[in-house]
Specification:
Layout (H helix, E strand, L loop, with lengths): L2 H7 L8 E7 L5 E8 L4 E9 L7 H29 L13
Antiparallel strand pairs: 1-2, 2-3
Length: about 100
């Protein structure tokens, strides 16, 4: 299944340079990963396990896991941006205005 087919089925579209990877795990689970493509290899940025037997079709199971992984990844990215903005406030804050 291509990225376009996953998106057409309901999975969130990922930014340029990112893709989904579906892997079979043990105990009847699939693991849906969001990966960032590097020059020679890719790096996992988020993953979500899913049990296909719990869904009417395997496609619905994979799309639901894609949605969950994208939601978790989005939350993680916004938390990282908030932390980056908060770094401007790190340090001692002298009530007299000194250093």
């Amino acid at each position: 299944m291509s990225m376009a087919e996953l998106v057409a089925a309901g999975a969130p579209e990922l930014p340029e340079g990112y893709f989904y990877r579906v892997r079979e795990e043990s105990f009847g689970l699939l693991n849906v990963e969001i990966r960032r493509q590097g020059r020679w290899f890719s790096t996992r940025v988020e993953s979500c396990p899913v049990r296909p037997g719990s869904w009417p079709t395997a496609e619905e199971a994979v799309v639901a896991a894609c949605c969950r992984a994208a939601e978790w990844w989005g939350r993680q990215r916004s938390d990282a941006e908030a932390l980056k903005a908060a770094r401007a406030w790190h340090g001692d804050h002298d009530p007299k205005g000194g250093k």
